[in-house]
């Protein structure tokens, strides 16, 4: 069985190398979330431009991770849980790529917002929301690397808070639009940004769910509202 | 080499079986797109409810496809292009699952829209847009099954038209909102729906790009605007 042991450890080494790329990609995506929110809040066009430019490197890294994952499968022929670990990397990197796109989109919009009336409190609220998502993303990746199901479960629960932040912001934007038609355009942009941040949270949750699935072979009955919530879009009450 | 030939054809048989599941999933997703748009246009709550209910079967099929793909890899140990074909199935089914979610979301919103003022012309425009996306999705999957790069390239180009439809609709909604604040809530919902349809188009394009990537090992230089476009959000001119 020495031979098998040897093969296993070669697989582990290779897996670690690909996982290191995923961690690197995760770090780049976390920076993108952070900087997109900062650029928006500070109306910093240069930083927004940097976020847009850096998205190319994130996309390139996804391709590289896919190639490495395929190489690993072809070379080491992993089975059962090992194979599932590698396959989940493909899904996780696709999620990260998507989140990078959302950050790029926020950066694009922040430039347009520069010419529009400011909506009081929105910058702060969006920063808070994106900080929550940034931490979720970090913890989701940590839970994957460390196979930490409790942490993954925690990420999954925190998505509910992000959904609530989004719903509260939505009602605020609606109020501003109803009060003054000159706020409509700015609120439409800000609402898109809020929605993009909420979707980032969904992707972090998706990564956390991969971790739970890998560890337990299934997901708890769907207690978490899945996909985007549909606010009733009234300004009264919750 | 008889043995290798035997292994190859067993792989082909297994691949075809998984691809048949992808085609089935594709058909379910196309129906979801179609029915979500019909339910919206006809304010048909029962049909909308059916779309929401059927999304569970789409999600279940994605899990099944992932399991089968993993089984195929473990059992047949495909390499090079064969392996890439199988790995692309995982990505394609993830895209289809996402599109199913968007259709479900449209169905959720169509119920809310029942209580709101009608926005002239919006039902027709959204149906046209979703019909375009439905065909894109069908052709993207056909291009995958038939390894038809020309068809995949065609799908990719058609996404530009969908983006244009979205931009035109966006400006229309903005006009209605500015003209009468009572339209704001309905337009916010309709705009979300338009955005969801546009995102479905992005996913169809993603599948088409997988086909091109599988066949050529790369993508043409990115001439297509990637991700969501950011309309300047003015009502004047284009």
UniProtKB/TrEMBL annotation, chains A, B:
Q: Which UniProt keywords apply?
A: Cytoplasm, Phosphate transport, Transport
**Domain PhoU per the UniProt entry, residue ranges:** 23-109, 126-211
Q: Where is this region: Disordered?
A: 218-238
GO CC terms in record: cytoplasm
Q: Say which domain of life the source belongs to.
A: Bacteria
**GO biological process entries:** intracellular phosphate ion homeostasis; negative regulation of phosphate metabolic process; phosphate ion transport
Q: Entry's InterPro entries?
A: PhoU, PhoU-like_sf, PhoU_dom
One Pfam family from the record: PhoU
Q: Does the keyword Ribonucleoprotein apply?
A: no
Tell me where in or outside the cell this protein is found.
Cytoplasm
How does it associate, per the subunit comment? Homodimer.
Entries under PANTHER family matching the protein: PHOSPHATE-SPECIFIC TRANSPORT SYSTEM ACCESSORY PROTEIN PHOU
Q: What does this protein do?
A: Plays a role in the regulation of phosphate uptake.
The similarity annotation says: Belongs to the PhoU family.
What is this protein identified as?
A: Phosphate-specific transport system accessory protein PhoU
Q: Which organism is it from?
A: Paracoccus lutimaris
